[in-house]
Amino acid sequence: KQEVTQIPAALSVPEGENLVLNCSFTDSAIYNLQWFRQDPGKGLTSLLLIQSSQREQTSGRLNASLDKSSGRSTLYIAASQPGDSATYLCALPNDYKLSFGAGTTVTVRA
Amino acid sequence: DVKVTQSSRYLVKRTGEKVFLECVQDMDHENMFWYRQDPGLGLRLIYFSYDVKMKEKGDIPEGYSVSREKKERFSLILESASTNQTSMYLCASSPPEGLQETQYFGPGTRLLVL
Q1: Chain B, window 91-110: residues with a beta carbon less than 8 angstroms from a chain A beta carbon
Q2: Is there a contact between A43 and B105 if contact means CB atoms under 8 Å apart?
Q3: What is the pLDDT of residues A34-90, one digit of tens each?
Q4: A42–B107: do the CB atoms touch at under 8 Å?
């Protein structure tokens, strides 16, 4: 059974600082890994999907890396802005479904 | 643009009521999912459907049922609502490639059962 862990649970940084969010998983035989963003009281928005054959994926200020052998993925957000304040979740396929981490709640202070 | 809509953003119901949560997607996706999200427990899969009239139990199906009569619509039914079903409910859909592709989520329905 795939277990997904995200540490820390919460993070507060001043505007302009780079963000580093961590996701670890127990089963390295993964198909892909996804990062989602969730604003308070809202649904999830997909940010990046990394296939198992890739080591990283980039979209604008976001970069996600994947190290299957160590069971880790990291989401980097460069030059953070107050609009980046949200909860970030990672998710991996687990049989027929997605297994989600509990998320990291980010606050970017202006 | 991809769109998953849920019938209500907020619902307040009484214990014992029958509750219907509706989800509609406009992407012609085969797969649809219902999750609930609770603080400290994250997202948990209740039911999913991979085709019209097909359904599979997820991790926590007890107390819930689902209906998929049309491809674009997936309904979650609480036969007799209880206070422990107070939660945020999220619907999602994905194309037939399934977990090779991302899931697209609706805005969520926050349900309060009194």
Answers
A1: 92, 98-108, 110
A2: yes
A3: 999 999 988 999 999 999 999 999 999 999 999 999 999 999 999 999 999 999 999
A4: yes
- CA–CA separation, B77 and B88 (whole Å): 14
* CA–CA distance, A99 with B63 (Å, rounded to integer): 21
What does each C-alpha distance from B72 to B9, B52, B58, B97, B101 come to in angstroms? 19, 9, 20, 17, 18
- Tokens representing B19 are 């509750």
Amino acid of residue B6 = Q
What is the nearest CA distance from B52 to chain A, expressed in angstroms? 17
Chain A nearest CA to B16, separation (Å): 26
Is the Cα dihedral B21, B101, B49, B61 positive or negative? negative
Q: Which of A34, A45, A97 sits opposite B58 (nearest CB)?
A: A97
| CB-based contacts of A22, cutoff 8 Å, min separation 6 | A6, A7, A72, A73, A74, A104
CB neighbours (10 Å) of residue B82? Answer: 12
pLDDT at A80: 97
Amino acid occupying residue B104? Y
Q: Given this model, what pLDDT does residue A29 score? A: 85
Whether B106 contacts B92, CB under 8 Å:
yes
Per CB-CB distance under 8 Å, the chain A contacts of B88 are 41
